[in-house]
Design a protein that fits this description.
Pnp Oxidase, Chain A; 5 helices
């Protein structure tokens, strides 16, 4: 499915134009950076957990968080994610690089409230830890009231996605090693909180196994 992302000014060959590739990047990580501007026009950035829900990005934070309040009042936002796949070790420091995937989505976020906020928070929880929503109680009204839930629509012409793959771009140097060092990720063994008398739940076991 071809789309119309924002135009890149450098390394245009690394740009991605397929929305499914954008979604793959957004779905591959759990933390992004939400950036907006304050009342004086100065940038404000905050790292957040997020979830892609169809053609929108869901984020949540405290109702007292300045960046969220600004975004809720219509300030333009940019949402950025990046995933490093490997360190590229070249024969020179200048040519050394990294293989990565990144995406930026721009727009104006919408505030969700009432049932829409509850559904969004449940969706967010399910993306972060699939199956957990069936193991614990739902959101209390006071918890929803203390949370600001934002949805950022992914609109054609308002996103960019990039990917670098491959090895070093320079030539070999005698006696100098060149190559790629892949990044390896995984979940460790769960550590129970003191006083916990329950077994590790299925959602956590599945997360580790997956």
């Amino acid at each position: 499915m071809s789309t119309q992302p924002r135009q890149l000014t450098r390394k245009k060959d690394r740009g991605l134009t397929d929305r499914t590739e954008l979604y793959d990047i957004l779905d591959s990580t759990l933390v992004g950076t939400l950036t907006t501007v304050d009342a004086d026009g100065l940038p404000v950035s905050v790292p957040v957990l997020y979830a892609r829900d169809g053609d929108r990005i869901l984020v949540h934070g405290s109702t007292g968080a300045g960046a969220f309040r600004r975004a809720a009042h219509g300030a333009p936002v940019a949402f950025c994610v990046a995933e490093m796949d490997a360190l590229v070790v070249a024969a020179t420091l200048f040519d050394s690089s990294a293989n990565y995937r990144s995406a930026v989505v721009n727009g104006v976020a919408r505030t969700l409230d009432g049932d829409s906020a509850v559904v969004a928070l449940t969706t967010l929880s399910e993306v972060l830890l699939p199956g957990r929503t069936t193991e614990v109680r739902g959101h209390l009204p006071k918890e929803v009231a203390a949370t600001l839930v934002l949805a950022l629509d992914i609109v054609d012409g308002e996103w960019t996605a990039k990917r670098r793959v491959g090895g070093a771009g320079d030539g070999p140097e005698p006696g100098v090693w060149r190559g790629v060092v892949p990044v390896v990720r995984g979940w460790g063994a769960p550590i129970a909180e003191a006083g916990t008398d329950a077994e590790v739940p299925a959602s956590v076991r599945d997360l580790i196994a997956g």
